[in-house]
């Protein structure tokens, strides 16, 4: 990766995720549904384990976690190119509902009656329960999820998004590009992502995502967050 596209991990640089405080940062975990994890093979499960560690780190730093997935009951409009494929996917979900469920390693607990905006009422090691948002099948960006931007992110004055998901060439790319265009600082945790197409994940994190997003490993993120602050 060239210097021009390398992640900026300098808290004095306003383009860096390290320049944004924890309460204005959010971790966005996208489409870790069982069907996608299985489709990605062993790399999918590795991404889930990394995402689990990312969520734990976020909880320890009181960074809100948002788990985004596709709604397994909504069909794209008939004029959409993937309408036919989506119908087949939804039939698979109906036959085996567990395929559409978020992987149990990341499954959020029941929503609380109320959620503290800035972490009051929860210890630093606990964090707040994660948000869980859904979007219609066929919408690639997690930021298209109902209520995510207008309610959750704006309510918390979020400026920086830390993203992981399956697949890298789908929801991760879509969310990262959309987030950048909406004015967020976007960081992609490469090892929290996976793609079923051989070599495509490496192309995405090595060449496609870096011009507009900060691409890091979980280890790089955690160490730089500590040192940079």
UniProtKB/TrEMBL annotation:
Domain (Isochorismatase-like): residue spans on this chain: 25-219
The name this protein goes by in its record: Isochorismatase family protein YecD
GO molecular function list: hydrolase activity
Protein family per UniProt: Belongs to the isochorismatase family.
UniProt keywords, alphabetically: Hydrolase
Keyword Hydrolase included in the entry's annotation: yes
Keyword hit for Oxidoreductase: no
Annotated segments matching region Disordered: 101-132
């Amino acid at each position: 990766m060239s210097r021009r596209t390398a992640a900026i991990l300098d808290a004095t640089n306003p383009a860096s995720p390290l320049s944004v405080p924890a309460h204005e940062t959010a971790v966005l975990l996208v489409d870790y549904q069982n069907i996608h994890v299985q489709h990605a093979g062993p790399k999918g499960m590795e991404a889930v384990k990394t995402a689990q560690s990312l969520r734990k780190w976020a909880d320890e730093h009181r960074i809100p976690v948002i788990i985004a997935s596709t709604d397994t009951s909504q069909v794209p409009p008939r004029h959409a190119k993937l309408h036919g494929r989506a119908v087949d996917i939804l039939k698979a979900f109906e036959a085996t509902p567990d395929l559409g469920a978020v992987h149990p390693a990341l499954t959020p607990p029941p929503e609380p009656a109320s959620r503290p905006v800035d972490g009051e009422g929860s210890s630093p090691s606990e964090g707040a329960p994660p948000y869980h948002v859904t979007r219609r099948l066929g919408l690639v960006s997690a930021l298209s999820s109902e209520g995510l931007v207008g309610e959750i992110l704006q309510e918390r004055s979020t400026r920086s998004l830390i993203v992981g998901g399956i697949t890298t060439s789908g929801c991760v790319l879509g969310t990262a590009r959309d987030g950048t265009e909406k004015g967020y600082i976007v960081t992609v945790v490469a090892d929290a992502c996976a793609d079923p197409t051989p070599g495509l994940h490496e192309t995405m994190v090595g060449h496609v995502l870096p011009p507009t997003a900060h691409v890091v490993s979980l280890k790089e993120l955690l160490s730089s967050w500590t040192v940079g602050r």
